[in-house]
Amino acid sequence: MNGTGLIMRTNIKQALVAVSTAAVVTFAGTGGAWAVEPAPGTTAPTQSTSTAAVEYTEATAEQIAVVLDRHNAYRASKGLPALAYDARLSRVAQDWSNTMATTGEFKHNPNYSAQIPSGWSAAAENIAANTTVGVEGARQVMTQWINSPGHEANMVSTKFTHIGIGVTNTKAVYDANGVVRYATYATVNFGGYSTSTVVATKPSAATNVRATAGSKSATVTWTRGSDGGSPLTGQTITVYSGTQKVLSGSVSATATSARISNLKPGVAYTVSIIETNKIGSSPESVRSNIVKPLP
Questions:
Q1: pLDDT of residue 242
Q2: Distance, CA of 226 to CA of 151 (rounded, Å)
Q3: Where are the domains of the chain?
Q4: S-S: 70 plus which of 36, 65, 142, 227, CB 3.0-4.6 Å?
Q5: How far apart are CA 193 and CA 199, in angstroms?
């Protein structure tokens, strides 16, 4: 087996089209019959199953940002609207990536269409795996999908309005026959929802938090996460010295930068962002780079 794997699955009510260079699974409605077949000249990737405990970590904010941003940048290049990040779709996707990582079985979630929020008019699932770790593993996943016609078709479908993302990180394992377990497992669940059926969720975490030193100050910039379908009402900046919180303050919902004053010169600080809408607050962002204010 080589170091990558790809499978796509499409589920579109009343109109089914699925094309892929890997295995294809299609079924009608939420209760229709389904069939599995490999595309011409290809073999669906398989892996050994292990009952041993597997250590893994769920997607980092950077990995989610890579997958979301590259999906929407690619759609924008085709003149298509962005997909909205959905935390409920993402929970289904993340749970399935975890399942693939812990079982070592690279295959589709047979129940994803029943697990994602109801009310969809179209739904699909793309999965991929590779032996690259961390953020680079997420970037490679996107390259795999873009270069595969069936997966790319899901990415640019006008039937979808929302996306859920799940990436699981583990340790690649090899034997004499090749890959036994991949390092990165990724799942995306697409859903097509009308505005009236979308239930707002908490925002997703801000990304790309960066800090620059100033005189007894630091300027922090960031990229806002998805608002969860409900406009942001505010954002909270927290400053850390080591693991200790030393300062916290609020900024406007539209802000993507702020200047933090009254910091001690030469002290190492990091900064995080939390976003809030009427549903609740996002996870805390990954902290910024270390910044040491100037005299």
A1: 94
A2: 23
A3: 56-193, 201-281
A4: 142
A5: 10
Tell me, rounded to whole angstroms, the distance of Cα 43 from its chain centroid: 27
Average of per-residue pLDDT across 195-213: 82
Are 15 and 21 spatial neighbours (Cβ–Cβ below 8 Å)?
no
Phi and psi at residue 195, to the nearest 5° = -55, -35
| pTM as predicted | 0.59
Going from the C-alpha of 186 to that of each of 127, 204, 256, 277, the distances in angstroms are: 6, 18, 29, 28
201 confidence band (pLDDT: 50, 70, 90): confident
174 and 68 in contact (C-beta within 8 Å)?
A: no
Q: Which amino acid is at 243?
A: T
The architecture of the domain spanning 201-281 is Sandwich (2.60)
Tokens 């007894």: give the residue.
Answer: 216
State the Cα–Cα distance between residues 106 and 2, nearest whole angstrom.
Answer: 13
> For domain 56-193, which CATH number applies: 3.40.33.10, 3.40.50.1480, 3.40.50.720, 3.40.140.100?
3.40.33.10
pLDDT over 60 (residue 51): no
| Residue 294 CB partners (closer than 8 Å, separation 6+) | 213, 214, 215, 216, 265
What integer is the mean pLDDT of 87-104?
91
- Regarding predicted confidence, which is higher, 156 or 226? 156
Among candidate residues 63, 205, 74, the one with its CA nearest the CA of residue 130: 63
Task: Name residue 217's beta-bridge partners.
Answer: 214
pLDDT at 84 over 70: yes
pLDDT digits (tens, 9 = 90+) for 8-34: 554 433 222 222 222 222 222 222 212
